[in-house]
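ugh ok so i messed up the first submission bc i forgot one of the chains. this is the corrected input, ALL of the components this time, i swear. 660 residues overall. if the numbers dont match what u have on ur side tell me asap before i send this to the collaborators (the ones from the other lab, u know who)
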Amino acid sequence: MEKPYLLFLGDAADQLAAKTATGIADWRPEWCVGQMRLPGCQADTGLADVSIAEAASRGARTLVIGVVNSGGVMPASWSDSIAEALAAGLDVASGLHSRLESFPAIRQAAERHDRKLFDLRHGERTFGTAKGIRRSGKRLLTVGTDCSCGKKYTALAIERAMRERGMAADFRATGQTGLFIAERGVAIDAVVADFISGAAEWLSPDNAADHWDVIEGQGSLFHAAFAGVSLGLLHGSQPDALVLCHEPTRRHMRGLPEAPIPDLDDCIRQNLTHARLTNPDCRMLGVSINTAALSPTEADAYLAETEARLGLPCLDPMTGDPGRFLDQLA
Amino acid sequence: MEKPYLLFLGDAADQLAAKTATGIADWRPEWCVGQMRLPGCQADTGLADVSIAEAASRGARTLVIGVVNSGGVMPASWSDSIAEALAAGLDVASGLHSRLESFPAIRQAAERHDRKLFDLRHGERTFGTAKGIRRSGKRLLTVGTDCSCGKKYTALAIERAMRERGMAADFRATGQTGLFIAERGVAIDAVVADFISGAAEWLSPDNAADHWDVIEGQGSLFHAAFAGVSLGLLHGSQPDALVLCHEPTRRHMRGLPEAPIPDLDDCIRQNLTHARLTNPDCRMLGVSINTAALSPTEADAYLAETEARLGLPCLDPMTGDPGRFLDQLA
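and heres the new structure output, hopefully the right one now
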């Protein structure tokens, strides 16, 4: 995929719906010429709003679909924008479940203008079933009380903190946004179910004894739709260390209005129990709190109370020091 | 798929490797004209050994690949037999991960002889993510300490026992062998990982209040390769009742020589904990023991000791009365 990118936010209904765009803008702003939004868009990456023509004139090479579409249906307004980008000479990249080429208008526009379509979620790679054999090197996995609560940002912040301490560390992407940021990895939720753990084993292979893979978690053991992916990733990762991620203002599990958010204690216990099936020495290093929706005073109080109650470091890695998680490794 | 079938066992290395053939022969013998084995085959369904020519003369319409191939590679000896069956006028059906048409010799033979290839594991159906909303009707799911320990046979025996009691009950297949037996269902391990629970919800939809779906379990929460599938199926099934299946002579988890078999207690507790995320009233009805590898005396002693220790009915549904599980529902 050629850089720089124009991030397409479409008519995203809320900030979370545009989390791919937001993730790229936050972690790789130097790769982006701006964002493009349609009327009604409720999300904002903070980058400059530019049209496709402006983006092309600034050198943009690829339009990145940075928003999820519900149920795999491509709205006509998106399709028109994508076709316009192809006509303007940009390639188009997507992390949606639906392949870009499955939409006739997009496929035809790409052929007409001789541009490339990238579907990051659909690799050509196939995987074997997991072997369950311990691998050399160290692994840290972020796990969550829910979907979309900070597992990727926490993993990226921990990779950065490890490198600042001179540790050998690599972020390992497991979702579409992570794949855009790391430019490698596997969309673990798009793998055939029999091979979830096998794909996780492939993602973090044998390595030097002091090397850390920092693996992006997915979903939650407590999410009725996605826990299978979470458990397969947990087993295949064989983590030496976990960090639990939590968004404290969430009132129910994402997409499931009847489902309560699990207790942090329960979440820690369940994740450790399952992790120890493949790595009996696995430990919980702390809790990463996404405090974006709290005032600074509320955030401080929440972090202090939670840390005192759990007896583990609790911090927001975007405002606090994720190195405190690493102190637990000493 | 047209009946009757010729069951192909290939050069199966052991009885478990031919579990699709064995399952069809045990539960639908009236659909089979016999079995076909290659030199070195270590499995036996008990059906008559017949050649392809003999099977064709007895009216066989479909050759069923009843054995798993390791790693998706089709041995040349299998490919030759399959091509011979196509030339003799039979269709060919398979539940392997690899599609029959992906093997050029097989695809070409099917085209040449105008025969059909069926890949049961690969439905054309796509699924949504799980909704987590409670459905009407009742559901029983078989779960296991390991893979290949009796979950399908237990579910089929319970469906039969329910019907003998005049209860409305349907076996719901989740694996290739179950699909051959039930002629419907979903190969849950072949679904894209994001949709495991969604597919399980589709499999056992709303039904009459007193109707039971008896759902075939897959894998084990304690199997490092397949637990993700097991958990997604458990959540999506929203079971009112579980039956735990166990093979008491197993010394390690299937395919993982280093991994011990979990305690029955642990297995009961973990399965109930996770099941209650989507059905808080879920109960464990008892333990189904596959005693095929024990002498009758050993079997009796094992069942009595386990039943006394766990305080739940423990029986082999192929030799004992699975109705004892149903007594727990009263």
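quick check: The interface with chain A takes residues 71, 97, 128-133, 188-194, 196-198, 221-222, 224-233, 235-236, 253, 255-256, 258-259, 270, 273-274, 277-278 of chain B (CB under 8 Å). that seems consistent at least. The longest helix of chain B spans residues 296-310.
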